[in-house]
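retry 2 of 3: previous attempt timed out while embedding nicotinamide-adenine-dinucleotide. Reduced batch size to 1 and resubmitted. Inputs unchanged:
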Amino acid sequence: MIARLAIIGVGLIGGSFARALRAAGAVGEVIGCGRSVANLERALDLGVVDRFTTDPAEAVAGADLVFLAVPLGSTRGILEAVRGALDERAIVTDGGSVKGSVVADVRAAFGRMPPNFVPGHPIAGTEHSGVEASFPELYRHRRVILTPLAETDPQALALVQRLWEMCGAEVSLMEVDHHDEILAATSHLPHLLAFGLVDALARMRENDEIFRYAAGGFRDFTRIASSSPVMWRDICLANAPAVGAMLQRFASELNELADTIHDGDGERLWEIFSRAKAARDRFLADGGRD
Ligand SMILES: NC(=O)c1ccc[n+]([C@@H]2O[C@H](COP(=O)([O-])OP(=O)(O)OC[C@H]3O[C@@H](n4cnc5c(N)ncnc54)[C@H](O)[C@@H]3O)[C@@H](O)[C@H]2O)c1
Ligand SMILES: O=C(O)C(=O)C[C@]1(C(=O)O)C=C[C@@H](O)C=C1
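retry 2 succeeded.
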C-alpha cells in the first residue's frame, strides 16, 4: 500500500507504527529520522527501519507517507525543514497528543492547511520511550482519533484511517478542539496528578521512608509519572487552556473533599466514592482500555 514510509521520530509511537504496518505487509521501505543516532542505529538493528538519516528533508524525499512522531515542541521545526522536500502527492500524518497545536504549526509552516495533511492521535502508549520500547501490537484494539479539517482530502483521510485499521486500531473522527478538551480530562490531567504527587512526596524530608512503605496503590496510581518529561512538558504547554481549566476544576473537587473530611461528613464521602467506583466499574465493563 505504501511503497516508502518516512518516520520522523522513531520512538515508542513512530517505531510501533512502522512495526505494525510492516507486520501487516502494508509498507515497502521504511526510512527513519531522528536526532539520536544511537536510537536510529538500534531501530536499524531491530529491523524497524531499513535506513536512517538525521536530516528530515532527506528522510521525506520520495516518501509516499510521512508520519511525524516527535515531542510536540519539535513539530513546527520539522515541518519547516521538510516543507520544500515533500513529494507533491505525499500524505503527511502525525501522532501528537494535542491536535490544536499541531494544526497551528502546520498552518504556520505551510501558510495554509495542505489537503494531504491528516492530523491524528493514537490513544495508546506506555510510560517508556525510544525505539526499544516500541512493539507491533501497541495499537491493537486501541482507539485512534483523526481530526480532519475542512481542507483535508477525503482520500488522504481514508488512506490514513485504513493504515491505522491495519495496525488493529479502531478509528474515530473528532473536531480538533473537542479532542483537546477530552484528552485534557482523560490523559493530561491524570499525568499531571501523577507527576505532581510523586514530586511532592519526593520533596518531603521523609521521602525515603515514604517510598519504602509504598505498595500497589501507589505503584498503580503513579506508573505514568515514569513517562518522558520532555513529552509531557510539551503536551502541557501545547494544550495549556484546556489543561488549565481541568486543573482548576479538579482543584475545586479536591477542596470539596478536604472540606468533607474536615466536617467529618462520612455520608457525603461515601456518596462521592460510590459514584466514582460506579463510573470506573462502568468504564471497565464497557471494555475500558489499558
Ligand atoms: N508515549 C505515549 O504514550 C504517546 C501516546 C500517544 C501519542 N504520543 C505522542 O507521540 C509523539 C512521540 O512520542 P513517543 O512516546 O514516541 O516519544 P519517544 O521519546 O519515544 O520518541 C520520540 C522520538 O523523536 C525524536 N526526536 C525528538 N526531537 C526530534 C527532532 N527535533 N527531530 C527529529 N527527531 C526528534 C527522539 O529522538 C525520539 O526518538 C509525541 O508527540 C507524543 O505526544 C505519545
Ligand atoms: O498508558 C500510558 O502510559 C499512557 O500514558 C498512554 C496515553 C494515555 O492514556 O494517557 C498517554 C498519552 C497519549 O497521548 C495517549 C495515551
